[in-house]
Amino acid sequence: MKILAVDTTASPVSAALLSDGRLLGEFYLNVRTTHSQTLMPVVSALLEASKTDVNDIDVFAVNAGPGSFTGVRIGVASIKGMSMPLDKPCAKVSTLEAMAYGMPYGEGVVCAVMDARCSQVYNALFRLDNGKVERITEDRAVSIEELASELECYEDTVYLVGDGAELCSKSFEERLENIVLVPENIRFQHAYGTAKAAMKMIEENKLCSSDELMPVYLRLPQAERELKARLEKQKEKG
């Protein structure tokens, strides 16, 4: 069973290839170049270096959100484009869950946070037990203050991961003593975590077709939010 996984939900771009659970290779770039320019060259280089033909891929996995609206669309569209002609199944992975699967060790709670601006984060909590991951909450958009209040209920070590981790760490440090800011090399989402999450989805028969694969947004894009606000104001005046 070969799984090709990609992530484009934040500044980094990555692609990973697993064969029967074994990591054959992973390419990761964090150079702030447009993902539309870097993703497919990264995927091609990975397949070439591992001597793998795209036709031999059994499952195509992608972090489908939350994350950057443009980044999420690029990742999803690319996986749809590769899987559709081959009629291969897809794994629609939560970006936040992929972060938890990217943790290589530890016991406690993984707090996955992505900066959603306006003092909010995209967040989900997971129970971590030496590589085993169990979801505690659904993916959601919450304020940093609300998240801090919720984490006060946990006595376990809380591992902060994601591009919002440093922001939350600074906000929590005087309030929560059990917070650990994970080292940068494993703090951000990697396609390896995406592939590991996809393995669980395969076991649970939760794959989807390329037609069914769609981005997951926890909030409307900013342009749509601004349009909605203007329309509501016009309605109130009207």
Mean pLDDT: 92
Q: Can you count the helices? A: 8
> Low-confidence segments, ≥5 residues, pLDDT <50?
222-228
Total beta-strand segments: 11
CATH class division of the largest domain: Alpha Beta
> What gap, in angstroms, lies between the N and C termini?
60 Å
- Structural class by SSE content: alpha/beta
Can you summarize the main beta sheet?
Answer: 6 strands, mixed
CATH topology of the largest domain: Nucleotidyltransferase, domain 5
Strand content: 25-35%
For CATH, the homologous superfamily of the largest domain is named as: ATPase, nucleotide binding domain
The tally of structural domains comes to 2
SSE pattern: EEEHEHEHEEEEHEHEHHH
Determine Rg (CA atoms, Å).
18 Å
CATH-derived architecture of the largest domain: 2-Layer Sandwich
Helix percentage range: 25-40%
Form type: globular
